[in-house]
UniProtKB/TrEMBL annotation:
PANTHER family xrefs: TETRATRICOPEPTIDE REPEAT PROTEIN 7A, TETRATRICOPEPTIDE REPEAT PROTEIN, TPR
One BP term from GO: phosphatidylinositol phosphate biosynthetic process
A single cellular component GO annotation: plasma membrane
Biased composition (Polar residues): 325-337
Source organism of the structure: Coregonus suidteri
Domain of life: Eukaryota
PROSITE patterns: PROKAR_LIPOPROTEIN
Annotated protein name in UniProt: Tetratricopeptide repeat domain 7A
Residue spans of biased composition, Pro residues class: 306-318
Length: 337
């Protein structure tokens, strides 16, 4: 059954069982799947009113507020309601702190005044640190802590939680990309390129990684080598997005282009994902782990930056990496909270 059809059936059923929580919940999920964010938030708020002891409901509403609507203040308020539950929120408590920190970080990206931006970044770091203290074995919380430390220019301190994230989920695209950016920020361009090559072996169609590779190759080898990578990117784009068109003279036989097919089993994502509050799977270390040991065993692991990180390799655009430094990597919402 299609999601839109399910939504219509649920709406009709609610005329006869208006106070049935299950129907409200299913309607909220179907509205989320249909991309109707405003309606989904309203329905999930009603679900939270019916079951105030369930912390997953405001967290789902917060996910929609951030991912579909960019209602950051509303999402922060919903997450704070879970934080106020304290220990009753159980495993949702660290995720609630993480979501509050993510909202503050995104608000810092939107802020125009430096004082406001610094204040949001400070609050974001405090909340993510609380989340990490509550659950130090969550790979995504560790990744977000490393990211936030990098955003406030604490590059050396950002390496420690990132190492934890990689030890838990060694082939994660965003963790490997952040490691590359941190090494580059410390002027270790060769080590950064080696890490990036490792990441591309796992995610060969990631345009964000390829853009970063262009910048690193330009810094190390000059524009000639970087242009070759740009050419490879154009070929990749052409294979994925460019479709055969009919001749311009035959207007009556226009063909709608098909949906682009993924080039591998690991599709590229342009932004970080909010952790899925209903996903209990843990990351599985694959062939990347032995190679990462080589990266972490290098002397650059804990070395301080040799110069202020003013010449960082500019990453590509995409929330929430849209601020300075590492923030332009690929906290969206394609992923699921």
């Amino acid at each position: 059954m299609r999601v839109s059809t399910a939504k219509q059936c649920l709406e009709r059923a609610m005329k006869f069982s208006f106070n049935e929580f299950h129907l409200w919940h299913q309607l909220g999920l179907s509205l989320m799947a249909c991309g109707k964010g405003v309606g989904a938030v309203s329905v999930l708020k009603e679900c939270a009113r019916m079951r105030p002891e369930d912390p997953s409901l405001p967290m789902l509403a917060a996910k929609v507020c951030i991912g579909q609507l960019h209602w950051l203040e509303e999402a922060e308020a919903l997450s704070q309601s879970v934080v106020s539950m304290g220990e009753e929120a159980a495993e949702f408590l660290p995720r609630a702190y993480l979501t509050v920190g993510l909202c503050c970080s995104l608000q810092a990206s939107d802020a125009t005044l430096k004082a406001e931006r610094d204040g949001f970044n400070r609050r974001a770091l405090q909340n993510v640190q609380k989340a990490y203290a509550l659950d130090p074995n969550d790979a995504k919380i560790a990744l977000y802590l490393s990211l936030q430390l990098a955003l406030v220019r604490q590059v050396a301190a950002a390496m420690d939680p990132l190492q934890v994230a990689l030890s838990l989920h060694g082939d994660d695209l965003h963790s490997l990309h952040l490691l590359t950016l941190l090494l580059s920020a410390q002027k270790h361009h060769q080590h950064a390129l080696e890490t990036l090559t490792l990441a591309l072996s796992q995610h060969p169609e990631s345009f964000n990684l390829l853009f970063t590779k262009v910048k690193l190759e330009e810094a190390l080898y000059g524009p000639g080598v970087a242009l070759q990578t740009c050419e490879d990117m154009l070929h990749l784009w052409q294979r994925r997005y460019d479709f055969t068109r009919t001749s311009e003279g035959d207007d009556s036989s226009s063909i709608h282009p098909p949906e682009p097919l993924p080039l591998s089993r690991k599709p590229s994502r342009l932004h970080l994902n909010l952790p899925d509050f209903q996903d209990t799977e843990t990351g599985v270390l694959r062939v990347v782990r032995p190679s990462l040991r080589l990266v972490w065993s290098r002397p650059c692991q804990r070395c301080q930056p040799s110069a202020p990180p003013t010449n960082r390799v500019p990453p590509t655009s995409g929330p929430p990496w849209s601020a300075s430094g590492c923030k332009q990597e690929s906290c969206s919402w394609q992923r699921d909270v």
